[in-house]
Amino acid sequence: MADLQPISAALEALLADVSALDVESIPLEAAAGRVLAEAVTAQLDVPPFDNSAMDGYALRAVDAGQWLPVSQRIAAGTQAQTLAPGSCARIFTGGEIPPGADCVVMQERVEQDGERALIPADIPAGDNVRRQGRDVKSGAVLLSAGERLEAAALGHLAGQGITQVSVRRRPRVALLSTGDEIIDPGTPLKPGQLYNSNRPMLKRLLENFGADVVSTISVPDDYARTVALLTAAAEADLVVTTGGVSVGEEDHVKAALEAIGQLDMWKLAIRPGKPLALGRLPRDDGSQARFVGLPGNPVSGFVGAWLFLRPLLGAMLGCAALKSLPTVTANAGFATSTGPREHYMRVTLQFSPKGVTAAAFDDQNSGVLSSCINADAFAVIPPHSDIAEGDKISCLWLAS
After folding, report:
1. CATH assignment of 51-130, among 2.170.190.11, 1.20.120.330, 2.40.30.30, 2.40.50.140
2. Which of 339, 344, 354, 331 is nearest to 377 (CA)?
3. 89 φ, ψ (degrees, to nearest 5)
4. CATH assignment of 7-21+170-322?
5. Span 327-397: which CATH code?
6. For residues 300 and 286, is the Cβ–Cβ distance under 8 A?
7. DSSP string spanning 300-312?
8. According to DSSP H, which parts of the chain are helical?
9. Which residues does 312 contact at the CB level (< 8 Å), separation at least 6?
10. What sequence ranges are listed for the domain MoaB/Mog (predicted)?
11. C-beta of residue 289 within 8 angstroms of C-beta of residue 304
């Protein structure tokens, strides 16, 4: 086992010389899930004016505790007039606070008689007023480069009236499935054949990690065809294969990669996922495509995608949040022992006042994909460890 490399060495090789992809400008309405290429500076205060936090009456706090005439009505979206001294204004949620007013009393506390309102005493200045710029000040950094544009960030940009954003181009990924025994769903199975579970699983993960899967290709157990298909696939930014990286006579991917490209790393001291190849493939223009060869076992592919594809795509997108998974310390809800390889166990996380407990799926075999369906995290068990129930362990939280 001396030739097996730790995951830290694999990540170093994987991310060496990776630079962020080029920039493109797209409509905000099409930017969900994309990564900002440039910081955005606020041009407007948010909110842009003092406004009411509720339906009620706007007034000067010093006038509280008496009947006041209602001098104006302010609905959201209408311009307020200066408040007449000794009066109040009927105001609705989001309505502009009229100049001269400094507080709002909720309507449930007010007694109304025609055009007069009895205001309770002791209303503090600033009560129920959302001040201009409370959320965002003009000139401040609204969002930083590398921010992934999810729901709240999109709303933040729209609140500035922004319609176009500069984002990183999505990495183009070619996804290759190897093996004569792997066939697509919809085709009757013959003896010895398996349906391709890796392709839809990895395609979804890659897309969740920000990639654009531009091709899905089946590769037969043939060395010459493997070379030809890898060569063609190198037009993508990243080539991902499943299977064919072990040491069997029909495993041609590693040999083809070494023949036409560069093998940076092979065989890791992790479980599942020992036979994992990292490298580069040449293009006609002299540039290179990145290559990640995942094992064919579906759990190994699932784990490898989170451990390697996610940080690689994060580097290509200039998105720091994708380059590492959040770590949670938990109490082991199981007992286990490891050999010379670090084990990534599929677990659910259970939260209670006593802390976090990691419950492991009973069958951790690399072919049992059902262990990944409801997994919240990978419990990382170091090599040569004996873990007893209740021991503190580190877990990688699976957050896309």
Report:
1. 2.170.190.11
2. 344
3. -125, 130
4. 3.40.980.10
5. 2.40.340.10
6. no
7. HHHHHIIIIIHHH
8. 7-15, 151-158, 198-208, 223-233, 253-260, 298-304, 310-317, 370-373
9. 14, 15, 18, 238, 290, 292
10. 174-315
11. no
Reply yes or no on whether the pLDDT at 1 is more than 50: no
Q: Can you tell me the distance from the alpha carbon of 283 to that of 231, in angstroms, rounded to the nearest whole number?
A: 8
- Give the pair of three-digit tokens for residue 126: 């600033």
d(CA 50, CA 246): 66
Predicted confidence (pLDDT) per residue in 264-290, tens digit: 988 888 999 888 899 999 999 999 999
Name the one residue in this structure whose structure tokens are 């319609």: 163
Residues near 217 by beta carbon (within 8 Å), at least 6 away in sequence:
174, 175, 176, 177, 229, 233
Beta-carbon neighbour count of residue 159 at 10 Å? Answer: 16
Cα 55 versus chain centre, distance: 38
For 300-313, write each residue's pLDDT tens digit: 999 999 999 999 99
Q: How far is CA 129 from CA 46, 52, 91, 93, 136, in A?
A: 13, 5, 11, 10, 16
Q: What radius of gyration, in Å, describes the C-alpha atoms of the chain?
A: 30
> Does pTM surpass 0.85?
yes
- Tokens found for residue 56: 């009620």
> Among 363, 326, 344, 322, which Cα is nearest to 268's?
344
Tokens encoding 152: 């709240």
Q: Are 85 and 100 in contact (CB under 8 A)?
A: yes
Instruction: For residue 385, name the pLDDT band (cuts at 50, 70, 90).
Output: very high
Query: What is the model's pLDDT at position 274?
Result: 83
CATH architecture of 23-46+134-168: Alpha-Beta Complex (3.90)
pLDDT in tens, 179-217: 999 999 999 999 999 999 999 999 999 999 999 999 999
d(Cα 28, Cα 38) in Å, to the nearest integer?
14
* Residue 34 contacts residue 75 (beta carbons within 8 Å): no
Three-class DSSP category at 88: strand
Nearest to 264 by CA among 16, 8, 3, 1: 16
| CA–CA separation, 125 and 7 (whole Å) | 59
